[in-house]
């Protein structure tokens, strides 16, 4: 018996580093740790810089070292329909959350939150740092944060589905 469906959209600026990493990690962890949790997961960017591009090769390499394949993902920009198509839209940082709040149409059913709200640390960092101009350590840090927050999100969704 499967649980109710949850549609989740991860959002960062360009949709080639943080949000596709979050999409891939959540898909991977949910399949392994919560296979009965019915999730539909996607990612997008608030900017149109990389539409159609694969995730940054450094993001792909860092994820691949942990057994997560991001190679099939492609960047897209947030659309107004996302606010009705998704239940939960999770921003990687406060700047993108503010952009999403401005874009959000009246009457939207989607909940907007920061992804790291699910980290469960007190005090919790609010922003997933953008690794784009950094080195391998920054991409690994993103993976660490995203993995921990994904586990917190899975736990929250499981509790709501009971």
Sum this structure up briefly.
The chain is α/β, with parallel strands linked by helices.
How would you portray this structure in words?
The chain has one domain (5-161): Response regulator (Rossmann fold). The chain has helices spanning 18-33, 57-64, 82-85, 94-103, 136-161; strands at 5-12, 38-45, 88-91, 111-114. It is 40% helix and 15% strand. Strand 1 (5-12), helix 1 and strand 2 (38-45) form a beta-alpha-beta unit. Helix 1 packs across helix 5 (136-161) and helix 2 (57-64) packs across helix 5 (136-161). It is built from 5 helices and 4 strands; from the N terminus they run βαβααβαβα. It has a 4-stranded parallel sheet with strand order 2-1-3-4. The chain is an alpha/beta fold. The model has no long low-confidence stretch (mean pLDDT 95).
């Amino acid at each position: 018996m499967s649980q109710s469906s949850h549609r989740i959209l991860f959002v960062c600026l360009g949709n080639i580093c943080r949000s596709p990493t979050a999409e891939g990690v959540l898909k991977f962890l949910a399949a392994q740790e919560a296979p009965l949790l019915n999730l539909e997961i996607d990612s997008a960017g608030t900017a149109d810089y990389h539409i159609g591009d694969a995730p940054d090769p450094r993001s792909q390499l860092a994820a691949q070292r942990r057994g997560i394949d991001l190679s099939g993902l492609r960047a897209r920009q947030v659309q107004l329909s996302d606010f009705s198509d998704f239940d939960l839209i999770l921003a990687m940082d406060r700047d993108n959350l503010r952009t999403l709040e401005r874009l959000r149409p009246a009457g939207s059913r989607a909940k907007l939150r920061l992804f790291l709200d699910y980290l469960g640390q007190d005090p919790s960092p609010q922003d997933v740092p953008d690794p784009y101009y950094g080195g391998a350590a920054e991409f690994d840090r993103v993976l660490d944060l995203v993995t921990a927050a994904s586990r917190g999100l899975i736990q929250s969704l499981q509790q709501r589905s009971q």
